[in-house]
């Protein structure tokens, strides 16, 4: 685990946070992650909703992405699976409102003595944000801000818009917990999210579906860094 790197990244903002698409093989994923990092992504999250949690391929994928992120001094986060993240020495995990509870995750972290572990939590409003911050979230993933194919079923397809993002930022600021905007974000939507107080943006399709992933990441990073 890159403890010093993770602390520095949480303190150093802004962020371009790349969330991987659900692909079936490690060989298909690694070139995409490599290109995202080359373009400026400075946090990587492995998110795979198709492979079973105990799948050998998921573990292989997580280990390979961890190694690639580590070689580039980029923190690596595992979505949903706190136990897997701890087991392979990832820098953190991200959980949603319907995943492992923050309390349960904290118990796992305490048992592993993982004091530097990053724990991200998905929220959509100020009430959830306040609860997550009280419970010890390291950062908040907030959204969907805009309509998104990746999160089409989240919150029954309802978006929180930039105004909702701003309300969550205000709640999180009381705890000095950073906020990452997610959901339907492309180059044209970065500036409004950053203006609302987000510490960065998280994207999937804006990089993974682009003809040139490195160029797409670079364009996104230029907007993030400018804000």
Automatic annotation (TrEMBL):
Catalytic activity: 2-[(2R,5Z)-2-carboxy-4-methylthiazol-5(2H)-ylidene]ethyl phosphate + 4-amino-2-methyl-5-(diphosphooxymethyl)pyrimidine + 2 H(+) = thiamine phosphate + CO2 + diphosphate; 4-methyl-5-(2-phosphooxyethyl)-thiazole + 4-amino-2-methyl-5-(diphosphooxymethyl)pyrimidine + H(+) = thiamine phosphate + diphosphate; 2-(2-carboxy-4-methylthiazol-5-yl)ethyl phosphate + 4-amino-2-methyl-5-(diphosphooxymethyl)pyrimidine + 2 H(+) = thiamine phosphate + CO2 + diphosphate
GO biological process, one term: thiamine diphosphate biosynthetic process
Enzyme Commission designation: 2.5.1.3
Pathway: Cofactor biosynthesis; thiamine diphosphate biosynthesis; thiamine phosphate from 4-amino-2-methyl-5-diphosphomethylpyrimidine and 4-methyl-5-(2-phosphoethyl)-thiazole: step 1/1
Keyword Metal-binding included in the entry's annotation: yes
Native source organism of the sequence: Achlya hypogyna (Oomycete)
Keyword Kinase: no
Protein name as annotated: thiamine phosphate synthase
Cofactor requirement: Mg(2+)
Domain Thiamine phosphate synthase/TenI positions: 16-207
Keywords in alphabetical order: Magnesium, Metal-binding, Thiamine biosynthesis, Transferase
Superkingdom assignment: Eukaryota
Catalytic class of the enzyme: transferase
GO MF, one example: metal ion binding
GO CC list: cytoplasm
């Amino acid at each position: 685990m890159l403890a010093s790197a993770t602390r520095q990244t949480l303190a150093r903002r802004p962020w371009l946070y790349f969330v991987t698409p659900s692909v079936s093989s490690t060989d298909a994923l690694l070139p995409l992650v490599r290109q995202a990092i080359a373009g400026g992504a400075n946090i990587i999250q492995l998110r795979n909703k198709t492979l079973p949690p105990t799948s050998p391929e998921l573990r292989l994928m997580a280990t390979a992405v961890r190694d690639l992120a580590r070689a580039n001094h980029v923190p690596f986060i595992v979505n949903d699976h706190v136990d897997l993240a701890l087991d392979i020495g990832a820098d953190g995990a991200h959980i949603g409102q319907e995943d492992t509870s923050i309390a349960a995750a904290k118990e796992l972290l305490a048992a592993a003595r993982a004091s530097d572990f990053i724990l991200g939590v998905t929220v959509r409003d100020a009430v959830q944000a306040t609860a997550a911050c009280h419970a010890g979230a390291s950062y908040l993933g907030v959204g969907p801000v805009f309509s998104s194919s990746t999160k089409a079923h989240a919150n029954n397809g309802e978006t929180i818009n930039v105004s909702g993002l701003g309300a969550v930022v205000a709640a999180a600021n009381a705890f000095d917990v950073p906020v990452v905007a997610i959901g339907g974000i492309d180059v044209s939507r970065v500036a409004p999210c950053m203006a609302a107080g987000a510490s960065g943006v998280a994207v999937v399709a804006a990089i993974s579906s682009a003809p040139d992933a490195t160029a797409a990441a670079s364009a996104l990073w230029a907007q993030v860094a400018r804000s």
